[in-house]
Amino acid sequence: MPWLHLKDLASLGRTCRALAATAASLNLLRANDIARGLERFPVPVFNIVDHVLYPLFSYSPFSILRSSPPLLPWGSLSRPPHKTPSNARPPSPSADICPCVASNSGQILESNSATNHSQLCMEADSPPISKRQREMPPLCGHLLEGELAYDGDSRLHCLSMSSKSDEWVPSNEFLSIIECGPACGCSLRCKYRVTQHGLSVKVAVLKDHLKGWSLRAMDFIPKGAFVFQYAGELLTTMEAQSRQRLYDELRKTQAEFAPSLMVVREHLPSGNLCLRLIIDATHVGNVARFVNHSCDGGNLQPCIARLSGSPIPKLVFFARCDIGEGDELTFSYGDVHGCETHPCFCKTAACKGFLPFEET
Ligand SMILES: [Zn+2]
Ligand SMILES: [Zn+2]
Ligand SMILES: [Zn+2]
């Protein structure tokens, strides 16, 4: 029964009292934790607006390559082997010095991680890497531009160093972070693996009478703290275009259908390279699929994180300002307003009236 979809479970529950009780307990488990035990914290769902259930999708804390959505149990009590206890703190940074720290202190990395860094998802027609880039590979724990990424509390340094907690930094440019990865000799506890432990704060999914589903902070989130990554299926441009056409058709007939297709373009400092990251969280994803748009940039800073030795970048979010308990988590979907079909309800002074839209 934990594998049944909601409608099938409801039908089964109507057949006898025993199954009705089991179905009710499974529904309660689902509402108590949309992440199904796969995150550090349970993610409850609240809906006092209507009786419409949240969209069906397979939960995954991390992005996967395009595939048939895995069949995950709903409300299963079994926990994955890597699961840490509820309310547990993230693994504290290791006291051991990361081998990358030594490498970062002056010399250029000798390992093949430097090569891997420069091979990230470049489009086929991208120009070759410049001589300067070959000589100055990105280093673990740094921004692509070269500055140190994190402070002693594992908060994004360029955000946390401002003394004013409510001062927002502009988010029109994605920051690029290099973290330790498969090419490094350090453990998962390394202080340069901040974005690699799934959801790092308590959140809840809440139905809003205007916006639909939204994501709220259930605890205080300090400025610069890592929040979560945007997980989903990683698509090629052709796959994304095909799905977009399908989703456009489905939206015409299903009012509640809410696709979550994210396209990220990033221009590297050289100016010659443009990365294109397409993540579809419609069928497989995590809590980030519930984050709504805000025309003023919202309270989340989107960043691109790259793991040394991994060819696939990640879209991750940090707090742009101190975020209070109960605040809605938002970020800017972009500033392309070519198709004004979906009204925006962000209610900020910068609101343009419509949600951004970009052709895949
Ligand atoms: Zn490391
Ligand atoms: Zn490293
Ligand atoms: Zn708006």
Task: Provide a quick synopsis of the model.
One of its GO terms (cellular component) is chromosome. By secondary structure, the chain is α/β, with parallel strands linked by helices.
Describe the secondary-structure layout.
Layout: H1 6-13, H2 17-32, E1 45-46, E2 58-59, E3 64-65, H3 99-104, H4 113-117, H5 131-135, E4 142-143, H6 157-160, E5 175-179, E6 203-208, E7 212-217, E8 226-229, E9 233-235, H7 237-253, E10 261-267, E11 274-280, E12 284-285, E13 292-293, E14 300-307, E15 314-319, E16 330-331
Parallel strand pairs: 1-6, 2-12, 3-9, 5-14, 13-16
Antiparallel strand pairs: 4-5, 6-7, 8-15, 9-11, 10-11, 14-15
Helix pairs in contact: 1-2
Bound molecules: zinc ion (3 copies).
Oligomer: single chain
* Number of continuous helical runs: 7
Element-by-element helix/strand order? HHEEEHHHEHEEEEEHEEEEEEE
Instruction: Give a quick account of the main beta sheet: strands, pairing sense, barrel closure.
Output: 5 strands, mixed
* Cα radius of gyration in angstroms: 21 Å
Main sheet: strand order = 4-5-14-15-8
Helix content: 10-25%
CATH fold descriptor of the largest domain: Beta-clip-like
